[in-house]
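Issue 218. Parser rejects a valid record. Input:
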Amino acid sequence: MANGNTSAGRYLAFPTFGGGGGGGGITQVKLPAAQMRFPTARGPVRRAPEPTLKETLAPFLPIALEGIGSLLKKDPEKLTDEKYLADLGGLSDDPTVEAMQGNKKKLARLEAYKLYGEPEEKDGFGFDDILSMVIGSQMGRGAADYAASSRAIDKAKETSRLTKQTNRGNFLNTALKDVNNLQFATFVNTDSAKVGVDDPRTGLFDPAGEAYVMNDDKTGYTNIKSLKGNWIEQNYTPTNPLSFQMRDPRLVELTKNRTALGEKDNALIGTMTLTNEMVKMLDKGIADPEQNPLTTVTSIGNFLNSAKANANQILSFMGKGNVSNAFATAEDIQDGIAGSDGREGSGQLAQQLYNAVSSGDDNQMKLAMAAFEEGNEGTNFESLLGDMAYSDVRTRATMLQLAYAAAAANGQTGRTLSDKDLAFHLQMVGFGATQDAQTAKDNILSFVDTLVRQTDNVVMGTISQNRLMSNAYPLDNDMFTSIISGYWEPPVINGERDFTKPSEYTFKNFYTRFGKIPDVVRYKKHTRRSGTMFDPSSNTSSGTVNSSTFVDDDLDAFSDLY
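Output the parser choked on:
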């Protein structure tokens, strides 16, 4: 062969493998030699030692300790409702909305206390934790179980505390929902509307149904139940005022009359107060001529401050809160209310003199007196007051204050004071030419006694029994009878006052109406000489008045005494 391969293989039908230069045929497979391993002897098997008793008990020991601690721990004292509320400051009786809110908050806290006890603070690191660490360190292999159990207990306690705190908070939020959810509203007084007065006020509603209205002083909201009148919520703005819709002319008239009569009563009480002081000084003069205020300057000057205060109060009543309004003006003359009947006219000189007397300035007083004498022909202060009273500035001022009080008490209701009113009453209270203390006392007491009769007669004429019997007022209406009962006492049937029989009413005279006022009691006790007008056994003091008495005749007769 050309290649020199003379082996038989070249003639075989199968290919050959392997590289050149080597022998042909199947490639040899070489396997790594296996490592020979020979069995060796195993060491002894070691088992974990059985747990000791303390290791077995370690997980349960914190539970046991917690139980023992609970047994040894004293529960906090459970306060009574009264004690708990007292610790919070107690409940307030104040009807204001602030007091209401405070009371409801305290009551809510009380209920929360009864359900959940006092709030608990989060347990901090303390002696019990140190003790637990010491015990845990002695548990050997059980220390981990002890610690895990202890942590679980602490976690459960904290979870319970937080749950209780959350429940308490939710309870208080629900309980105080009404307290903090106040709704604004407008309220009106139907009783005021019936007498022609509109009195709308802002107010508050709480969801519990309580209502609070702005108080009379406009300083805050007070419970509607504590206010006078019948207050209702105004749900809409009416086309016409409520007073226009509900006004009862009869009630308006009766209310107006009560106001006027009240002013007259107050003026008379004030006059009695001044008279009591004057009589006290005259009694000293009766007992000791050297103390006679008509012949010597004594303690009458000490009376000035009292006289000034009382006169100011009386005129303030008459002037609806303003003394200046008590004196007749040009407008009053046009309106026909300037001065009492027969003494009509301006009151400007009387007002000028009053201002001078109130100032205490002697020169100003003399100038005002001179102007008054010039404007009122026939008036002479020196002759009216007496030499001693005229010469002493304090005595003069006191007598003038008394004259103003008497003029107001004896004035006609609904009318202002004129200069002629003052001049007339200066005659009534002045000492004049007399220097006898007893005579002066008789005169002043007689005059005030006449005022008492006059006042009662005015009442009986204004709210007369005939008018009541003629069905002028609905006697089944409390708003009417509450006013009428101030002057007339109905019969009592089966323990209840029966207003349906006006013919059986008993008149409440001045001493019945005001018999418990100290100055009225004091005045009534003054000793009088026989022959004077006042008679303690007369109808005037016993509770009834003879309506046939003509006061004008009394006053005319009294004037004649001077």
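Fixed in the parser; the record now loads. The longest strand covers residues 183-189.
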